[in-house]
Amino acid sequence: MNHFYNILRYAKPYKNFAIGHIISNVFYALFGALSFIALIPMLDILFEKKDKITPLVEPVYEGLSNLKDYYKDYLAYQVSLYTDNDPQKALLMVVSLIIVLFLLKNIFGYLANYFMVFLRNGVVRDIRNTVYKKTVELPLSYFSEQKKGDIMTRVTADVSTLQYSMLPALELIVREPLTIIFTIIMMLLISVKLTIFVFIFIPLSGLVISRIGKSLKRKSDRVQKEQGITLSTLEETLTGLRIIKGFNAEGTFYEKFSDSTNKFYHFSNKLLNRQNLASPASEFLGILVISILLWYGGQLVLVDKTLDGSSFIAYMGLAYNILVPAKAISRGLYNIKQGDAAAERIQEIIDSPNLIKDIPDATSLKGFENQIEFKNISFKYEDEYVLKNFSLTIPKGQTVALVGQSGSGKSTIANLITRFYHVNEGDILIDGININNLTTSSLRQQLGIVTQDAILFNDSIISNLKLGKQDATEEEVIEALKIANAWEFVKDLPEGIHTNIGDSGGKLSGGQKQRLSIARAVLKSPPIMILDEATSALDTESERIVQVALENMMKNRTSIVIAHRLSTIQNADNIVVLNKGEIVEQGKHDDLINKKGIYKKLVDMQSFE
């Protein structure tokens, strides 16, 4: 239930709708209870109890103990005044009263639902937005330990589970308890004995129903986790479909997917059958209580003569009226149990600590003036250090290339300067300021990133390029495309810069996608550029075109180039050779070649991985 209260916090901005909902439900419950009490004088008329329905004098209030008789006599007195003691007119008037009461009940019922629509949908929207916002704020290290499909399930399916299981319980918080309270008051007015008898059996039936729902949270949690695995498998299949087909692995992935859906099938069956048991069980127990009431109430009418027939019939209507909200509450409790698992999974994301957070008095970096300095950096992703006592100074305007075999720590340096990860030891300084003391947004505003995989989005070319500069004009976009050698193919597209490039830029070649990535970085126009193996995935011809684009982009900028091929780095101001997280050589291309060390071997192998 703690997670249910967490969800209720999201209802705070919608308190006006909540107040409207509560007020409407108060009147809904009140008129619902009164509509059954109004049946008593109508039944008295039908049973020809004229002594009770046509008093000649106005009744006198004698206290709570006689409130029921006072109400009946007063209503009958008013009816007799306006109908001249004509039973047909009296019946018509009482029926009209009942119609009005039911009409008012349903009007307020509609208003309660009307306000709840805004409250419930607003809460769902805010939860989704909160989860998505937290998802994009979390550091990359969080996602290396999570399955993308599971996160997608939490943002989509789990929030939908809340929408259709836990959040409908918001409607029950006021309406059903009030209906029960008002109904009980009316029942007590009719017969205290019968009401006490009712309260002996209702808790017993409630205990049975609650035992049925005890394991719902656990079963629901298994269903949602398996749904995440299913979605992860689907996401991996769509991403790697080319490899799956190329290695004839369709059968392997089908087995993996079908195994997950089979588990989902069995878990869902158990969950839904447990839910399906709730309704018939509660209905049977309800009818059992009604049957016992009929027997005991009949004794009070026929044997004890302490209750008249019309009051007993109205009482039975009230008793049934109390069963409807009681069933709704029990069903709501089942739903809360199911939704609690979804809420817990959602809350896990919301409560996940964000290690890459700005300190309280973080400085905003306005520009880049002097140098970047790595001072004795050590870093590990898990247990082993991938960088050890790494120190390097990069003056403004210089191009520094990082080379070395896979696992030597090249890409880690790019991850650290962009604050995708925190250093374990040492400091990274820009113009003498530790980047941990800068606001993350102002730091990244000074950086442009071109990665090995050209990450583009299913949108137009202009929208992809304006990612880092939303106010860019079309002329600026075209100029950036020209610098990146991309305008030559963009201008020939059907809609030019407004052409949609498909999912992950699937309508373009590898070289075209990379040139758009470069154009995006050019348009942002940052003083520091990070090129993470930007040409490693390209063929020779595409590499040549992209290399020209990179050289255009790096003019008058400070660049950190993580190198894969010789052509990318041979003109660098400083080439830093890494081996197992440590600098083993550094200098210009020709100087390093003459040393005939590790760099010379790498050049000979053409293997800057």
Automatic annotation (TrEMBL):
Task: Please identify the protein, giving its name as recorded.
Answer: ATP-binding cassette, subfamily B, MsbA
* SUPFAM superfamilies in the record: ABC transporter transmembrane region, P-loop containing nucleoside triphosphate hydrolases
Membrane-traversing stretches: 26-47, 90-112, 180-209
Q: Which PROSITE patterns match?
A: ABC_TM1F, ABC_TRANSPORTER_1, ABC_TRANSPORTER_2
A single Gene Ontology CC annotation of this entry is: plasma membrane
Asked if the keyword Cell wall biogenesis/degradation belongs to this entry, the reply reads no
* Subcellular location per the Swiss-Prot or TrEMBL entry: Cell membrane
Cite the ABC transmembrane type-1 domain residue spans from the record.
Answer: 22-338
One Gene Ontology term of the molecular function aspect = ABC-type oligopeptide transporter activity
| InterPro entries hit by this protein | AAA+_ATPase, ABC1_TM_dom, ABC1_TM_sf, ABC_transporter-like_ATP-bd, ABC_transporter-like_CS, P-loop_NTPase, Type_1_exporter
Does the entry feature the keyword Protein biosynthesis, yes or no?
A: no
